[in-house]
Design goal:
Strand content of chain A: 25-35%
Oligomer: homodimer
Distance between the termini of chain A: 49 Å
Mean pLDDT of chain A: 90
Low-confidence stretches of chain A: none
Number of strands of chain A: 17
Helix content of chain A: 40-55%
Amino acid sequence: MSQKTKTAEILCVGTELLMGNTVNTNATAIARGLAEAGLNLYHQTVVGDNPQRLREAVELALSRADMVITTGGLGPTYDDLTKETIAGTLGRKLLPHEESQRWVEEYFRRVGRTPCPNNQKQAMMPEGAVVFQNHNGTAPGCAVTGTGRWEGKTAILLPGPPRECEPMFREQVLPYLRRDSGTRLVSRCLYFYGIGESDLAHRLDRLMRESKNPTVAPYCKPGEVMLRLTARVEEGEDPGPILDPVVEEIRREAGEWLYGVNVGNLQTALVHTLLAKGLTVATAESCTGGLVAQRITSVPGASSVFQWGVVTYSCETKRKLLGVSQKTLDSYGAVSPQTAMAMARRARVKSGADIGISVTGNAGPEPSEGKPVGLVYVGLDSENVTLAEELHIQTMEDGGREYIREMAASRALYLALKAAKQRVK
Amino acid sequence: MSQKTKTAEILCVGTELLMGNTVNTNATAIARGLAEAGLNLYHQTVVGDNPQRLREAVELALSRADMVITTGGLGPTYDDLTKETIAGTLGRKLLPHEESQRWVEEYFRRVGRTPCPNNQKQAMMPEGAVVFQNHNGTAPGCAVTGTGRWEGKTAILLPGPPRECEPMFREQVLPYLRRDSGTRLVSRCLYFYGIGESDLAHRLDRLMRESKNPTVAPYCKPGEVMLRLTARVEEGEDPGPILDPVVEEIRREAGEWLYGVNVGNLQTALVHTLLAKGLTVATAESCTGGLVAQRITSVPGASSVFQWGVVTYSCETKRKLLGVSQKTLDSYGAVSPQTAMAMARRARVKSGADIGISVTGNAGPEPSEGKPVGLVYVGLDSENVTLAEELHIQTMEDGGREYIREMAASRALYLALKAAKQRVK
């Protein structure tokens, strides 16, 4: 770590971003890459296609950071002004760039279109720039250093469309940035289910406050918390001695709720556990309407562990398609622990899978058959266990239906994961 | 419209946003809402959970604009500092807010958890603030005006999680902002399937360029385009005479691809059409793994039109659970138009529904049984039609699996919608 860690800023240019017509996924992708490359990042900004505000934003960014990475405004039309504005700010002339001219011509030949005169503008580059080829469009990117007041500062210009920007950043800009950094960041992600963020933060209070290397940061989604541990190490250094003791400490304090490390989410943890143990799962869903099956099958490789799922909304289909007995349905009702267990058992028996999971409940918007919105039973049937859990999922807004379904599906996936971990085949 | 148009800035606070762990959908939602409310927006900024940089960002925003809208940093933990920092910047004390205390207690009682001492902090509010209740979490939002140097400037603080932030913004902040504007905006959303954005924009070029009232703005999602027409009218004025002629013009130019007005999405259009006609639908899915069923059942009221769906990944389950003949599977393979049609037909016959839809194909990541990634067949079976469509869904990136599944599911929903519109029961 001989050199001082450099600081970058992200500046996204485009009226469509500013006005909310497009979600800013470029900023997300670039921010992740900068973290991996070990650069500091303290600000992201969005401005519209306005040269005056763009110039001010570039000057502000370069006054605070070593470099600014921009996206957008490299297109062929009159309101694409990023290159002209930044070259002007940094005191660099725009010159025709022969290689870029050839790329643009080649690109148009390949897609069978004719370049218009405006495309010439895209092959003009700031004097002395490192040029990045665009494999997915006509606008090359570039890195250009400043003169005068901005001596020693760098601007990196990338195109706006994510399918042009993200590959260019990953394949060309990241290697350019890593060339002289010397350190890197390594992350480990710990996934928790069944504990709230504030409770987890309370248990790990000292660690989260005081740990600097690795840093420990929580991220929430409904029903789950992820902790990201990030260590800064020298190029070639093993991050284990920095990360392992902290992971162990977290296991001691909150291991009960930890369901995996670097697993991504519940469905991926489930599919990978089933694959590792040679087990299979089947689903029978009522109020989640296919969501459990959809989440399992979103994981590549799911076809080896999941081959069978049914969506049975009515009592009739629970009986006919799944084989739940009329007696169970009559005695306890469709939304009951008995029906949830019967659905899970029938799914397992009928499919020949090792584990059957089921969901039945009321996701709203109205109470149904005397069952309140948010009352859900999740069932599990495995070789040596049959159980049902009663959930009361509380929500107050219109989007509550999707929330109830997501929470119920997560619980079903979690039960299946626990059962799969306990089983030996 | 006597008053000068006000300018707002968006300032999103959170290290997880800054580092790219979360996509900034809040900024998108708020930006759209501000545009609809007729406010100017020239800058969006993201900073981490750092009080010094947050303070600087607030001061910069308020020096350029009339108000700043922040998201994030209202949680219970030590690094949630937005309220404290902004109250300090604006010269406002934090005081206990009784109503918020009651909301927080009520929220915890409802979700069956115990508040920790940190939750007290969430019920502290800046002196004189307008408080926005949080229907989906524990952190209330607020609007607070400045004192001294920031006299006449406003900060609006919203929670970070999108399911808390977006409803609060839409239901409470937008009415707060509109309160003294005197005009209102009325939107009509037109939904298109099967036409690309650039093709639609080309057909409606003059209208999209020139129309000022209503404004016409396109929004894209995979396989679909939505046009939002927004008219500005005086309080009490009927927006019909402004909106209707433009809707008619769009119908003339692109009515072929228009599948609904204000319908929200394909699955909602389908469920509402089925409800209106007293029809039912059943699904049989392979590569979409329950996604079609899940999208249909996400619509409130779906239980009346959808009672039956299966996920059959393997040939064996297609045969046993659904009853597709061994001969069809042997002769044509699982990924074939014949199997897609047989799946749709069996789903309809077995369930007794009016319409059966099916999806079978390869969503990747690897070619399977000689079928390339992205080759999908969508089947439809109705009283007087059985058909299968072959899709080649192209994708270049790693996230391709989900994209292929979404595109295939959309096509199946679209076919069902077309069939439902044509049928009379």
